[in-house]
Amino acid sequence: EDADDEDDGAAGASEDGARGGNRETSTSVEEKGGMKTTRKRGFDRGEGGYQSRWWTTKRDCPDGRSGSSETRWAKCDFSGYKELGFEKSGFNDTGETWWETWREIYCRDDFTGVEHIERSADKWARDAQSKEWQEKWWERYYANGAVERGVEKSGREVRQAWWEKWGEQYDGEGATLKWTDKWAENGMGMRWGDKWEERRSKIGSGRKSGETWRVGQDGERFSRTWGEVLSPDGSVRKFGNSTTGESWDTTVVENVYFDKSKPPTWQEVLSSSERLMSIELTPVSQDDDDDDKWSLARNAP
Protein backbone atom coordinates (compact mmCIF):
# COMPACT_ATOMS: atom_id res chain seq x y z
CA GLU A 1 0.00 0.00 0.00
CA ASP A 2 3.03 2.31 -0.04
CA ALA A 3 2.80 5.43 -2.14
CA ASP A 4 5.74 4.20 -4.21
CA ASP A 5 3.51 1.41 -5.47
CA GLU A 6 1.02 3.86 -6.99
CA ASP A 7 0.78 4.12 -10.77
CA ASP A 8 1.96 7.52 -12.00
CA GLY A 9 -0.67 7.20 -14.73
CA ALA A 10 -3.54 7.51 -12.26
CA ALA A 11 -5.02 4.02 -12.31
CA GLY A 12 -8.16 5.04 -10.44
CA ALA A 13 -8.73 7.94 -12.77
CA SER A 14 -8.78 5.67 -15.79
CA GLU A 15 -9.17 2.06 -14.69
CA ASP A 16 -10.24 1.06 -18.18
CA GLY A 17 -7.49 3.05 -19.86
CA ALA A 18 -8.70 5.33 -22.59
CA ARG A 19 -11.37 2.84 -23.81
CA GLY A 20 -9.53 2.23 -27.03
CA GLY A 21 -8.83 5.95 -27.51
CA ASN A 22 -5.77 8.01 -26.69
CA ARG A 23 -4.09 9.73 -23.77
CA GLU A 24 -2.38 13.10 -23.47
CA THR A 25 -0.27 14.00 -20.43
CA SER A 26 1.72 16.89 -19.00
CA THR A 27 4.33 16.50 -16.23
CA SER A 28 6.26 18.88 -13.98
CA VAL A 29 8.84 18.12 -11.27
CA GLU A 30 9.89 20.33 -8.35
CA GLU A 31 12.53 19.70 -5.67
CA LYS A 32 12.29 21.87 -2.57
CA GLY A 33 13.26 21.40 1.07
CA GLY A 34 14.49 17.86 0.47
CA MET A 35 11.15 16.81 -1.02
CA LYS A 36 10.58 15.84 -4.65
CA THR A 37 7.12 16.71 -5.96
CA THR A 38 5.92 15.34 -9.29
CA ARG A 39 2.71 16.72 -10.76
CA LYS A 40 1.05 15.10 -13.72
CA ARG A 41 -2.23 15.76 -15.48
CA GLY A 42 -3.83 13.69 -18.18
CA PHE A 43 -6.67 13.76 -20.64
CA ASP A 44 -8.08 10.45 -21.94
CA ARG A 45 -10.52 10.13 -24.82
CA GLY A 46 -12.19 6.95 -26.00
CA GLU A 47 -15.20 5.21 -27.47
CA GLY A 48 -18.72 6.42 -26.77
CA GLY A 49 -17.56 9.98 -26.17
CA TYR A 50 -15.58 8.90 -23.10
CA GLN A 51 -13.53 11.70 -21.53
CA SER A 52 -11.43 11.54 -18.36
CA ARG A 53 -9.35 14.38 -16.98
CA TRP A 54 -7.11 13.59 -14.04
CA TRP A 55 -4.53 15.28 -11.86
CA THR A 56 -1.84 13.47 -9.83
CA THR A 57 0.56 14.84 -7.22
CA LYS A 58 3.29 12.57 -5.85
CA ARG A 59 5.71 13.55 -3.07
CA ASP A 60 8.83 11.55 -2.14
CA CYS A 61 11.68 12.00 0.32
CA PRO A 62 15.17 11.31 -1.07
CA ASP A 63 15.80 8.58 1.51
CA GLY A 64 12.56 6.80 0.56
CA ARG A 65 11.35 6.71 4.16
CA SER A 66 8.15 8.64 3.51
CA GLY A 67 5.95 9.63 0.61
CA SER A 68 2.42 10.28 -0.55
CA SER A 69 0.33 10.25 -3.70
CA GLU A 70 -2.98 11.90 -4.58
CA THR A 71 -5.07 11.58 -7.74
CA ARG A 72 -8.31 13.35 -8.65
CA TRP A 73 -10.45 12.86 -11.73
CA ALA A 74 -13.61 13.85 -13.61
CA LYS A 75 -15.23 11.57 -16.23
CA CYS A 76 -18.19 11.60 -18.58
CA ASP A 77 -19.44 10.08 -21.86
CA PHE A 78 -22.26 10.26 -24.43
CA SER A 79 -24.65 8.17 -22.28
CA GLY A 80 -24.78 10.93 -19.67
CA TYR A 81 -22.52 9.07 -17.25
CA LYS A 82 -20.64 11.42 -14.89
CA GLU A 83 -18.06 10.65 -12.23
CA LEU A 84 -15.88 12.50 -9.74
CA GLY A 85 -13.31 10.82 -7.53
CA PHE A 86 -10.00 10.85 -5.73
CA GLU A 87 -7.43 8.42 -4.34
CA LYS A 88 -4.86 9.18 -1.64
CA SER A 89 -2.13 7.01 -0.14
CA GLY A 90 1.03 7.45 1.85
CA PHE A 91 3.55 6.15 4.36
CA ASN A 92 5.96 7.75 6.84
CA ASP A 93 9.21 7.03 8.65
CA THR A 94 7.40 5.75 11.77
CA GLY A 95 6.02 2.76 9.85
CA GLU A 96 2.47 4.03 9.35
CA THR A 97 0.77 3.54 5.99
CA TRP A 98 -2.69 4.45 4.67
CA TRP A 99 -4.91 4.85 1.64
CA GLU A 100 -8.28 6.41 0.93
CA THR A 101 -10.61 6.58 -2.06
CA TRP A 102 -13.90 8.37 -2.76
CA ARG A 103 -16.26 8.41 -5.76
CA GLU A 104 -19.51 10.06 -6.79
CA ILE A 105 -21.35 8.77 -9.87
CA TYR A 106 -24.44 9.75 -11.88
CA CYS A 107 -25.94 7.37 -14.45
CA ARG A 108 -29.13 5.72 -15.72
CA ASP A 109 -30.09 2.07 -15.27
CA ASP A 110 -29.48 0.18 -18.52
CA PHE A 111 -32.85 -1.61 -18.32
CA THR A 112 -35.28 0.75 -16.54
CA GLY A 113 -33.70 4.08 -17.46
CA VAL A 114 -34.09 5.27 -13.85
CA GLU A 115 -31.51 7.89 -12.90
CA HIS A 116 -29.43 7.42 -9.77
CA ILE A 117 -26.50 8.95 -7.91
CA GLU A 118 -24.06 6.83 -5.96
CA ARG A 119 -21.50 8.02 -3.43
CA SER A 120 -18.92 5.73 -1.83
CA ALA A 121 -15.70 5.86 0.17
CA ASP A 122 -13.13 3.38 1.46
CA LYS A 123 -10.40 4.14 4.04
CA TRP A 124 -7.66 1.91 5.45
CA ALA A 125 -4.70 2.48 7.76
CA ARG A 126 -2.04 0.46 9.60
CA ASP A 127 0.44 1.56 12.25
CA ALA A 128 3.98 0.40 12.97
CA GLN A 129 2.68 -2.33 15.32
CA SER A 130 0.50 -3.77 12.50
CA LYS A 131 -2.70 -2.56 14.16
CA GLU A 132 -5.08 -1.78 11.32
CA TRP A 133 -8.61 -0.62 10.62
CA GLN A 134 -10.84 -0.11 7.60
CA GLU A 135 -14.10 1.73 7.02
CA LYS A 136 -16.20 1.95 3.88
CA TRP A 137 -19.64 3.33 3.15
CA TRP A 138 -21.96 3.80 0.20
CA GLU A 139 -25.19 5.63 -0.64
CA ARG A 140 -27.41 5.10 -3.68
CA TYR A 141 -30.23 7.52 -4.42
CA TYR A 142 -32.76 6.81 -7.19
CA ALA A 143 -35.00 9.27 -9.03
CA ASN A 144 -38.07 7.19 -8.07
CA GLY A 145 -37.36 7.85 -4.37
CA ALA A 146 -35.68 4.55 -3.50
CA VAL A 147 -32.54 4.73 -1.33
CA GLU A 148 -29.86 2.23 -0.27
CA ARG A 149 -27.19 2.99 2.33
CA GLY A 150 -24.60 0.90 4.11
CA VAL A 151 -21.44 0.94 6.23
CA GLU A 152 -18.74 -1.65 6.94
CA LYS A 153 -16.08 -1.25 9.64
CA SER A 154 -13.35 -3.61 10.78
CA GLY A 155 -10.19 -3.64 12.86
CA ARG A 156 -7.39 -5.99 13.81
CA GLU A 157 -4.69 -5.95 16.48
CA VAL A 158 -2.38 -8.97 16.61
CA ARG A 159 -4.87 -11.88 16.80
CA GLN A 160 -7.88 -9.88 17.97
CA ALA A 161 -10.33 -8.68 15.32
CA TRP A 162 -13.80 -7.18 14.99
CA TRP A 163 -16.27 -6.38 12.20
CA GLU A 164 -19.45 -4.34 12.00
CA LYS A 165 -21.93 -3.87 9.16
CA TRP A 166 -25.23 -2.08 8.86
CA GLY A 167 -27.56 -1.10 6.05
CA GLU A 168 -30.93 0.39 5.24
CA GLN A 169 -33.22 0.48 2.23
CA TYR A 170 -36.23 2.66 1.37
CA ASP A 171 -38.49 1.64 -1.49
CA GLY A 172 -39.62 5.21 -2.20
CA GLU A 173 -43.20 4.51 -1.07
CA GLY A 174 -42.74 4.25 2.71
CA ALA A 175 -41.52 0.68 3.27
CA THR A 176 -38.10 0.18 4.90
CA LEU A 177 -35.52 -2.50 5.64
CA LYS A 178 -32.81 -1.98 8.28
CA TRP A 179 -30.20 -4.44 9.53
CA THR A 180 -27.01 -4.72 11.59
CA ASP A 181 -24.42 -7.49 11.93
CA LYS A 182 -21.51 -7.40 14.43
CA TRP A 183 -18.98 -10.03 15.37
CA ALA A 184 -15.54 -10.34 16.94
CA GLU A 185 -12.83 -12.84 17.88
CA ASN A 186 -10.11 -12.78 20.52
CA GLY A 187 -7.53 -14.85 18.62
CA MET A 188 -7.72 -17.66 21.18
CA GLY A 189 -10.67 -19.53 19.71
CA MET A 190 -13.52 -17.47 21.16
CA ARG A 191 -15.95 -15.70 18.82
CA TRP A 192 -19.17 -13.79 19.46
CA GLY A 193 -21.66 -11.63 17.64
CA ASP A 194 -25.07 -10.02 17.40
CA LYS A 195 -27.35 -9.25 14.45
CA TRP A 196 -30.87 -8.00 13.84
CA GLU A 197 -33.19 -7.07 10.97
CA GLU A 198 -36.31 -4.91 10.82
CA ARG A 199 -38.82 -4.73 7.96
CA ARG A 200 -41.62 -2.16 8.09
CA SER A 201 -44.46 -1.37 5.70
CA LYS A 202 -45.61 2.16 4.95
CA ILE A 203 -48.46 1.77 7.49
CA GLY A 204 -46.09 0.68 10.29
CA SER A 205 -46.70 -3.08 10.39
CA GLY A 206 -43.70 -5.34 10.04
CA ARG A 207 -41.33 -7.92 11.46
CA LYS A 208 -38.16 -7.90 13.54
CA SER A 209 -35.71 -10.73 14.08
CA GLY A 210 -32.28 -11.19 15.57
CA GLU A 211 -29.68 -13.47 17.07
CA THR A 212 -27.01 -13.22 19.76
CA TRP A 213 -24.37 -15.96 19.59
CA ARG A 214 -21.08 -17.05 21.11
CA VAL A 215 -18.58 -19.84 20.41
CA GLY A 216 -16.18 -20.70 23.23
CA GLN A 217 -12.57 -21.82 23.03
CA ASP A 218 -13.75 -25.41 23.48
CA GLY A 219 -16.10 -25.09 20.49
CA GLU A 220 -19.28 -24.98 22.57
CA ARG A 221 -21.88 -22.76 20.91
CA PHE A 222 -24.55 -20.59 22.50
CA SER A 223 -27.32 -18.94 20.48
CA ARG A 224 -30.43 -16.95 21.35
CA THR A 225 -32.81 -16.05 18.50
CA TRP A 226 -35.83 -13.80 18.74
CA GLY A 227 -38.56 -12.33 16.58
CA GLU A 228 -41.41 -9.83 16.67
CA VAL A 229 -44.48 -9.38 14.49
CA LEU A 230 -45.90 -5.86 14.62
CA SER A 231 -49.52 -5.12 13.70
CA PRO A 232 -51.01 -1.71 12.83
CA ASP A 233 -53.36 -1.95 15.85
CA GLY A 234 -50.38 -1.95 18.26
CA SER A 235 -50.34 -5.66 19.09
CA VAL A 236 -46.89 -7.26 19.04
CA ARG A 237 -46.18 -10.97 19.01
CA LYS A 238 -42.80 -11.73 20.63
CA PHE A 239 -41.18 -15.14 20.37
CA GLY A 240 -37.79 -16.83 20.56
CA ASN A 241 -35.62 -19.59 21.96
CA SER A 242 -32.04 -20.38 22.90
CA THR A 243 -29.66 -23.31 23.04
CA THR A 244 -29.95 -23.31 26.86
CA GLY A 245 -33.63 -24.26 26.68
CA GLU A 246 -35.23 -20.82 26.86
CA SER A 247 -38.47 -20.42 24.92
CA TRP A 248 -41.16 -17.76 24.78
CA ASP A 249 -44.15 -16.79 22.63
CA THR A 250 -46.48 -14.05 23.79
CA THR A 251 -48.58 -11.21 22.39
CA VAL A 252 -48.72 -7.79 24.02
CA VAL A 253 -50.16 -4.38 23.18
CA GLU A 254 -47.69 -1.53 23.35
CA ASN A 255 -46.90 1.83 21.83
CA VAL A 256 -44.68 0.68 18.97
CA TYR A 257 -42.10 3.22 17.82
CA PHE A 258 -42.00 3.81 14.07
CA ASP A 259 -39.29 6.06 12.69
CA LYS A 260 -41.09 8.10 10.03
CA SER A 261 -38.09 10.20 9.06
CA LYS A 262 -37.47 10.18 5.33
CA PRO A 263 -34.24 10.20 3.32
CA PRO A 264 -33.41 13.16 1.04
CA THR A 265 -35.63 13.64 -2.00
CA TRP A 266 -34.21 13.25 -5.50
CA GLN A 267 -34.18 17.02 -5.98
CA GLU A 268 -32.27 17.47 -2.70
CA VAL A 269 -29.72 14.87 -3.81
CA LEU A 270 -29.24 16.64 -7.15
CA SER A 271 -28.77 19.96 -5.35
CA SER A 272 -26.05 18.49 -3.12
CA SER A 273 -24.28 17.02 -6.20
CA GLU A 274 -24.00 20.29 -8.10
CA ARG A 275 -20.31 19.80 -8.91
CA LEU A 276 -20.90 16.29 -10.27
CA MET A 277 -23.86 17.35 -12.40
CA SER A 278 -21.91 20.27 -13.87
CA ILE A 279 -19.53 17.91 -15.71
CA GLU A 280 -20.08 18.18 -19.46
CA LEU A 281 -18.45 16.76 -22.56
CA THR A 282 -15.95 19.25 -23.95
CA PRO A 283 -15.12 19.14 -27.67
CA VAL A 284 -11.37 18.88 -28.07
CA SER A 285 -9.55 19.41 -31.36
CA GLN A 286 -5.94 19.73 -32.38
CA ASP A 287 -6.46 23.49 -32.54
CA ASP A 288 -7.40 23.77 -28.84
CA ASP A 289 -4.84 25.57 -26.70
CA ASP A 290 -3.73 24.25 -23.32
CA ASP A 291 -6.25 26.29 -21.33
CA ASP A 292 -9.16 24.85 -23.32
CA LYS A 293 -7.79 21.33 -23.12
CA TRP A 294 -7.85 21.40 -19.32
CA SER A 295 -11.12 23.33 -18.98
CA LEU A 296 -12.69 20.55 -16.88
CA ALA A 297 -10.27 21.35 -14.06
CA ARG A 298 -13.06 23.37 -12.40
CA ASN A 299 -14.91 20.08 -11.93
CA ALA A 300 -12.11 18.38 -10.03
CA PRO A 301 -13.28 17.22 -6.58
Automatic annotation (TrEMBL):
Its main location: plastid. GO terms for molecular function: starch binding. One of its GO terms (cellular component) is chloroplast stroma. Keywords: Chloroplast, Plastid, Transit peptide. GO terms for biological process: regulation of starch metabolic process; starch metabolic process. Residues 1-71, 281-301 are annotated as: Disordered. The keyword Transit peptide applies. InterPro entries: Alpha-glucan_binding_chloro. The keyword Disulfide bond does not apply. It is found in: Plastid, Chloroplast stroma. Belongs to the ESV1 family. This is Uncharacterized protein. The lineage of its organism: Eukaryota, Viridiplantae, Chlorophyta, Mamiellophyceae, Mamiellales.
